[in-house]
Amino acid sequence: MIREFDFDLVVIGAGGAGCTVALTAARQGCSVALVSKEAIGTGNTRMSGGELVSSGVTEGDSADILKEDMINGGEYLNNPELVEIVARGGSGAIHFLENIGVFFRRDEEGRLSVRVANRLGGHRFPRSFVSLGSGMFIGQALRNAVAGQALISVFEDTLATTLLQEEDEIGGLLAIDLKTGDGVALKSKATLLATGGCGWLYYPQTTNNRTATGDGYAMAFEAGSQLIDMEMVQFFPFAMNHPTCLAGSMLDESRLAGPRGKLINGLGGVVSDHDINLLTRAQVTALMAKEIAAGRATPWGGLRLDLSGNKDVPEMVEYKKWNDERKAFEKVRWGYGEKAFRWEEPWDVSPSAHYMMGGVKIDRQGCSTLGRLYAVGEVAGGIMGANRLGATSLADIFSMGKHVGEEVARFCQNSCHKEIHRSLIQGEIDRIRQLPGKRGNLRPIHIERELQKLMRDNLGIVRDERRLSHILSEIDRLEEELEKNASISSIRRCNTELIDAIELKHMLSCARLIATCARMRRESRGAHFRLDYPRQDDEHWLKNISIWKEGNRIRTSVTDAMGKNFIRQTASALDEAHVHD
């Protein structure tokens, strides 16, 4: 059975980005289908720390300076036009959230002032504000706001499988209702991807939700949309690596090290003993990666972070007090013991897959290189460049979500539906229906676990030609295993093996995209660290890599980085200032 619906806009993904776009477009009078394979308001947004940057609070700070910091942190692969929207949208994002019931930590006078602002690595000023209740409260507030909007139709427990395409335009989505097993065809004037990242490729060493399987990247790629910077996978530097139930759990930014924190390798040698807190995530991760690759890791595969030197530093005493009040580090007490919790013993830390800087290539309106297909949030590339600064992801999803929501609403108000032939819908449904009941020797989850280990070993924080060539050949083998040897239950309702098979297909596609681009980039930059090319090479590789599918072939192109003009403009402005001086 196929159920068919018509909407102005279909939004795939119901975390922060998807809900913001849906709410914004609905308030402009558009009918919206909000499609999610999990509950509305969940995803990685619900798991976030709830921190968001807003410039201009500290004297001397401004949106222009935040833009510079983001592009410097992204090592000039960013699209400056998109960065500017985020840099100028922080206060609007906070306003949007407080309007739906999310409130932020304020000073004694009830203001968002420098007294309650955090300074994270790579930021020149304190400008990060913490929402009360963190991501869990944000997710609940979004869910409540969506429930109160009559023009939004919710499709929960609905797994997107394929974008409905006619020529170079997208006319909607094909999905599966997981509760019934029925096909769902959602036809629309515009379709928007807000599916988040693909951190589940690195399980268990990831901070991401179980559903971060790269669905949006894979569907966009299959349709022929260009993706950009796919080699740039950010690893959060300080995460737990044992016990198994806590592996991958996020601890904190580089600020956790404070001014006197020490990184110590498995042999007892000091790797770094000061100002780690001022480094970006990519810089700390690269520091750790070199030690780990050299065989100097702890038995758990990471390094030790000694925080004892910060116990008499006033700012760190306040930092610990605030985090103890919100029980941010209770997991350290559970996993590492009371002495570690009190900073009397070092913490064993490893980088954990956290965020995807690359993604669907978009323009200022959020539109991809395919007509009628838009993207917002982590699934979109170009904003963060080679490395994302802390607390910019929530600023991105809420400021870009509002901006793109307005843009796509205008498009829908002035457009008609794209004609989708019934044969296309039926053909895709028939393809999916062939999966349940397959009789093979391997359940999809076993193939998935093998892929995840391959990703951690070959396409994690350290890479080289041998590893990248190996994983590309292994992806071919695993794709063949899934196609020929997977075993999938024949039940229709809540078939978890069918879910695993569809998500695994998306994960394999993402793994190939990341590996292909990582093999092309013969340098180290931002989140991409190659042992065989350890230096940053601006002369040859200050460039963006685009990748797309043309027929059955993968195409790539290398173009001057979008941030290159920003460097020139900044240099020209400085020269002009010197002349006037």
Summarize this, please?
With 581 residues, this protein is of the alpha+beta class.
Task: Give a structural overview.
- There is one protein chain.
- This protein has 581 residues and is an alpha+beta fold.
- Among the domains are: 236-351, Flavocytochrome C3, Chain A, domain 1 (Alpha-Beta Complex); 433-560, Methane Monooxygenase Hydroxylase, Chain G, domain 1 (Up-down Bundle).
- Helix content is 38%, strand content 19%.
- It is built from 18 helices and 20 strands.
- The strands form 4 sheets. Strands 1, 2, 5, 6, 7, 8 and 17 form a 7-stranded mixed beta sheet that branches.
- Helix 1 packs parallel to helix 12.
- The longest helix has 25 residues, at 496-520.
- It is globular and about 70 Å long.
What keywords describe this structure?
single chain; 581 residues; alpha+beta; Flavocytochrome C3, Chain A, domain 1; Methane Monooxygenase Hydroxylase, Chain G, domain 1; seven-stranded mixed β-sheet; six-stranded antiparallel β-sheet; 38% helix; 19% strand; disordered C terminus
